[in-house]
Amino acid sequence: MLPMFEEYLPQVEGDNCESIRKMLLDDIMTLNGKQTIYQMIRFCERVKERGGEPKDPLDYKHEYLDRLEARINNRVEKIRYGNESPEKYLLHGSLSVLNELVDRGWTLYLASGTDIQYVKREAELLGVSKYFEDRIYGALDDYKKFSKRMILDRILEENSMTGESLLIFGDGYVEIE
């Protein structure tokens, strides 16, 4: 994301490459865990601040996802065709934790700020979709119809639960909030 932002950000006289890079990285990391579109919206604000005319945030998002796909495609293909173990890309011990939770009768949900088609593909490739079944959620182009908060609220409501009944793993915006 950072290289794309650096490429598109209008240059202003007196720019310091390091401070621009830090500003953009801070914007990206501040919104980490939220849907990608929010980072794109913030980038559009930066473009405007610098006198530029930004594209639609959704256009930036799609370009970013295309660039990301090109970068990771080799890894995806290696896993898909069995040339590399999915476990190489999982946190150490994560399968043991998932197995233990399922063995204890817990119902697991996966909610990601990444677009749904990629979340489902990655869960399948990494061998974890079986733990979540049809309870895998991800971002939509219509970003107002999806958020992790919305998913959490729905889980609580559908299961007549309170927040104290949830155990959440994550390092994103919503998990920390």
How would you characterize this protein structure?
The model has no long low-confidence stretch (mean pLDDT 91). The longest helix has 24 residues, at 57-80. By secondary structure, the protein is mainly alpha-helical. The protein has a two-stranded parallel ribbon with strand order 1-2. The protein has helices at 2-8, 17-30, 36-49, 57-80, 94-103, 116-125, 129-132, 148-158, 173-176, and strands at residues 110-115, 136-139. The two termini are 23 Å apart.
Mean pLDDT: 91
The total of beta strands comes to 2
Please trace the helix and strand order, writing H or E for each element. Answer: HHHHHEHHEHH
**Rg for CA atoms:** 19 Å
| Strands ordered across the widest β-sheet | 1-2
| First and last CA, distance | 23 Å
Approximately how much helix is present in the residues?
55-70%
Q: What coarse outline follows from CA principal-axis ratios?
A: globular
* Percent in strands: 5-15%
- Distinct helical segment count: 9
Helix/strand class:
mainly alpha
Largest sheet: 2 strands, parallel
Sequence stretches where pLDDT stays below 50 over 5 or more residues: none
